[in-house]
Amino acid sequence: MSTGKIRWWAVGRRIQYAVGFFSFWGMVGVLIYFTNYYQPPSCFDLVMNANETGVDCGGDCVRICAVDVVPPKVVWADSFRITDGQYNAVAYIENENQIAATPELKYTFQLLNEGEVIAERSGFTVLPPNSSYPVFEGRIFTDGRRAVTETKIILEAADMWLPASVGRDQFRSLDINLSSADSRPRLDVKVENTALSSASDVEIVATVFSENGKPVTASQTFVEKFDARSSKDIVFTWPQSIAKTVKSCIIPTDVVVGIDLSGSMNNDSDNPPQPLTDALQAAGRFVNSLKEDDQVAVVTFATDAAVSNALTNSHSAVADSISSLTIASAEEVGFTNTPDALVESMSELNSERHNEDARRVLVLLTDGLATAAGDEDVVAEAIEKAHEMRLDNIEVYAIGLGEGVDRQFIVDIASDESNAYFAPTGADLASIYAEITSALCESGPTKIDVIAKTKTNFAPLR
Question: Is the pLDDT confidence value at 271 over 90?
Answer without folding.
Answer: no
